[in-house]
Amino acid sequence: MNIKLHTPKSLKMGSGMSSLKQFLLSLFATSVSIALTFGTAAIIDYNAKQKAKREIVMMVMYDMHNTLQWMEKNDTLFHEAMLYQKRLAENPAEYDIINTAITMARFIPPVDYTETTERIFSTSIETINTVGNVLFTENVAEFYQARAAYKTLVCDSIMNTLKAESLFTTLQGVINFDFSNYAFISNEIKTSMQPLFDQCKQMMDVSDEEIEIYQKERQKIKKEVPVDDEARAKKSQEIIQLLDEIKAAKKKQKIE
Following CA atoms 114, 116, 122, 123 in sequence, which dihedral angle do they give, to the nearest 10 degrees? Predict the structure, then answer.
C-alpha cells in the first residue's frame, strides 16, 4: 500500500504563517518607531532643560563672582583711604580743601552691580524649577540678602553721612572720617558671602575656569556691539540746544 502525505493547503501556500509573521514584524516596527519618536523627543527635551539650567547657573555664578570682586575692590579703597588719612595726620600742611576733596572722593565705594540677575532668578518660579536644587536656591537668596545689607550699611551709609556733614571740607573732618568702621563691616559681610559662593560652585560643579570663560564671552559680546557714541553725542547736543533756548526764552521774558 502506498501512502502519500499531503501538506495542508494553508501551510503549503504559507498564507497563515506568513500573515502572522508579517503582522508581528509590522507590530515590532511600529513599536520601535513609537519608542524612537518619543525617546528622541524626551532626549531633546532633557538636553534643552539641561542647557537652560546651565545657562541660568552660570549667569548667577558670574553675578556672585563679580559681586565679591567689587567688594574686594572696596576693601582696597578703604585701606588706601586710611593710608591717606595717616599721611595727612602726619603732615597737616599737605591739606588743601580742593585737592583733598577730589582725592577723598576717589575712596567713596560705588555700587558697582545691577539687580537684573537677582530679579530674574528670585522672582521666576520657572527659573527656580529649572535649576531644581533647593540648597543652591537658598544659598543664592542668602547671598543676595547679604549684598543688599552691604549696600545699605556701607555704600549708602557713607554717602548719607557725607551729604549730611560735608566732612571733607576740613582737615579734621577728613582725618576723623571713620573708614575703619566700614572696612570692618565690609569684611564681616564679605566673609559670610564667600562660603555661599564656594558652596554653590561645588553643588553645581562650576569651576573658576568656566566662570572666566563665561566672563570673556560676555566681554566679547559687549565689544562686538559697541555703544553708538555718535548717536549719544547727537542726543546730548539736542538737549544742550533745547536748554539754551529755554534760557533765552526765560531771559527774554525776564523769568528768574
Answer: 140
